């Protein structure tokens, strides 16, 4: 237990060490740690922000998806309606066209019949005239009875 | 522990001579008068070397400290840094980074390193010193078992304590506190206050330094007493070595604990100096 000059020497050494630590050791460690803490805090904040943004985006996409689905079903409904309408229209047009063709055919048939009747009538009249001629050749003067024959032909 | 067996056997040392040899300082007078003007070269060299090594190693890491992913070395240093910083943060509520926290780090690491010299086998140290300095050269490896070291640290803290007290409260505030705390500012309690503060100011550095000194000195003496077992023969040497190992393991706790306590008291004293009463 002898106090001596060692005490002063040790105090000086202590002072120098404190100065060294205050000046050179503590500040770089402190700044490194504080910077890292700040970076971690920023990263965590960014992460939670990102999570929020993701939630908002998910909600938005759901809404958009629903809208699109609704629109699509609307479009499909309209298309179906329009399709059936087109089919209806086509049916009507086809029926009208068919009726027209049938009417045309009927008219033509009528015409043919008339023409045939006309032909037949003229043939029958000439046949009758020929028959009558054969029968009446001798007794009847053709020129004298032509008026009566013409009347007969007309009656046929 | 092993070599002292040879030492004591060959030279026929007495137990008291052995202990005395190991508890003597390598003292050199630094001026004519001797007495006070003596330097314990062993204490001084060991403490300065340890201070340079410990703070130098920390500095090497701190110099290249990065805010990114830390290296293993930096992670270790940051562990110590945060440990000290947390302790200071809980006690001192000011700008700790400008002085008090780095001082606490210095005290903790330096005292820890100096205490750790207790783990060096005392007779290995003696043998190395005897090899260089001759038979009767003396060398005490544990600077904190020198009362000069612990007093130097405690008195430095004491001076800082008064410095900060005056700096924060002004000279008037400091003197006012000497007379008006803790019992109040009535004039008839001034003497009691002053006496109280005087005792406090005297007891702080004493308890601060003697606690560390006592623990380290006692630890060293116990190592020496265990070393004496070697004088009884081979089985005694083995027995002594086992006991020495046990004491070493227990001493790890003391070394760390005393360094921690010394640091905490330093911080508490300096923090108290910043508070007004």
Write a structural description:
- The complex is a heterodimer of chains A (156) and B (277).
- Chain A has 156 residues and is mainly alpha-helical.
- Chain A has one domain (27-155).
- Chain A contains two helices and no strands.
- Chain A starts with a helix and ends with a helix.
- Chain B is mainly alpha-helical and 277 residues long.
- Chain B has one domain (3-274).
- In chain B, strands 1-2 form a two-stranded antiparallel ribbon.
- In chain B, helix 4 (72-91) crosses helix 5 (100-116), helix 5 (100-116) runs antiparallel to helix 9 and helix 7 (147-180) packs antiparallel against helix 8 (190-227).
- The longest helix of chain B is centred in the C-terminal third of the chain and has 41 residues, at 234-274.
- Chain B is globular, with a radius of gyration of 22 Å.
- Mean pLDDT of chain B is 88; it is low at 1-10.
- At the A-B interface, helix 1 of A face strand 2, helix 3, helix 4, helix 5 and helix 7 of B.
What gyration radius of chain B follows from the Cα positions, in whole Å? Answer: 22 Å
pLDDT below 50 for ≥5 consecutive residues: which ranges of chain A?
none
Q: Report the C-alpha radius of gyration of chain A, rounded.
A: 62 Å
Q: Classify the beta-strand content of chain A into a percent band.
A: under 5%
Mean pLDDT across all residues of chain A, rounded? 90
Low-confidence stretches of chain B: 1-10
Main sheet attributes: strand count, strand direction, barrel closure of chain A? none
Return the structural class of chain A.
mainly alpha
Q: How would you characterize the largest beta sheet of chain B?
A: 2 strands, antiparallel
For the largest interface in this structure, which chains are involved and how many residues does each contribute?
A-B, 32 and 47 residues
Rounded to the nearest angstrom, the distance between the terminal CA atoms of chain A is: 175 Å
Which series of helices and strands of chain B comes N to C?
A: HHEEHHHHHHH
Strand content of chain B: under 5%
Please, what is the average pLDDT of chain B?
88
Number of DSSP-assigned strands of chain B: 2
Envelope shape of chain B: globular
**So how many helices of chain A?**
2
The quaternary organization reads as heterodimer
User: Helix segment count of chain B?
Assistant: 9
Give the helix level of chain B as a range of percent: over 70%
